[in-house]
Each structure stands twice: as structure tokens, then as C-alpha cells.
Input
Amino acid sequence: MLDDDQRDYDPEPVVIDSDNDEGLPSLLDDIVKGGETGKLWYVIHCYSGYENKVSHAIQQRIETMGMRDKIFDVIVPTQEETEVKDGKRRTVERRVFPGYILVEMKLDEDSWYVVRNTPGVTGFVGMGNEPTPLRPEEVKAIIDRMEAQSPVFKVDYKVGQKVRIIDGPFNDFIGMVSAIDTDKSKVRVMVNFFGRDTPVELDFHQVEKT
Output
């Protein structure tokens, strides 16, 4: 199952073959016989890089096939990431789980058919031959992560690397990164000043790799 602290989760998924027409999984058989699930979140696997396209296709099929009462929401989990490269800062949206889409639905024969036959969908993630819904705490962790106000910072240098200071009183000094504080968006650089190493605290955008 998905874990809320994994950034690059992309294991070999257990999926239900969308080309298998020999019968529904036993879970769906139980539903068709009279049982009914509530609104639950399921994980859909698709080709990495096509998450938004597949999500849009599912939403189109929901409308054209009149499934709004059974398929309620489709989410591509993303998180804002502030990227600092060559001293320049830009905010980008990164997929939290490449190759995976979340679908909130009441699982029955019709809704399963609509989703599994959407172009680009390779199957549901599940145990054995059954789609497995996410637990409420897993869904909450993913949504909380997406709605986090503080973006994740990604810098193109690391502790021990030489960098050039490109802003401030130490502009054009070369130093060594001694610490990186992503929470405060600060980097500490050791520069040689008057013959001695001096720690200088700077914002991420004030340094670049040499």
C-alpha cells in the first residue's frame, strides 16, 4: 500500500489485468450479488508520465457514461517543490507517486469496467485479484501532503560541495557547503576571509554550484 512518507514510490504493482474478460474478481462478484460498498479510494496504475492525461480520460468517461453517481473524484497526487538551480528559484509541481492515480468510487461491475477500460490504465492496485481500497488514514496523509502550505525545497548542491556566492556582501566568493536547512531555506557556506574559514548563512538563491 502507499506510504505517506515515500516520495518516489514506484514498485512493481499488483494489478488486475484490464484485458481479462474471464470474469470479475471475487470482491466484485460479492457486490453484484447484492452487497454494496461505500465511497472508497482506490489506486489505479498507469504509464508514468501519462497521469494527467489518463486522469482527464477517466473524468471524460464518467461524464459520457453517466457514472457521476458511482465515480466521484480522480486525483493525481502532486506536491509543490521549490527548485533552486544556478541561484534561481522556481516552483514546480511534482507527482508524489509517479504512475499512480487515486479514484474515489463505489466499486461495482459498472464502475470497475469504466475505469479499467480507460486508455492508459493498466489496472487496479490490489491484493491478489481484488482491488484494495486505501485506508482512511492513508488518504488523509496524501491529501494533507498535497495541501501543505510550505513547499519542499530541492537544491542542486549538497554538503561538502563547492559553491559560488552570487548575492550579498560575499558576492563572487567561493566556499564549501557545511549545512543545508530546508525548513528555513538557508545554506551555511564556509568561506576563506582574511586567512580564516568563516561560516556565512545565506538563502538558497544566493549560491550556485561552481
Q: What stands out?
A: The CA atoms of residues 83 and 154 lie 5 Å apart. The longest strand covers residues 78-85.
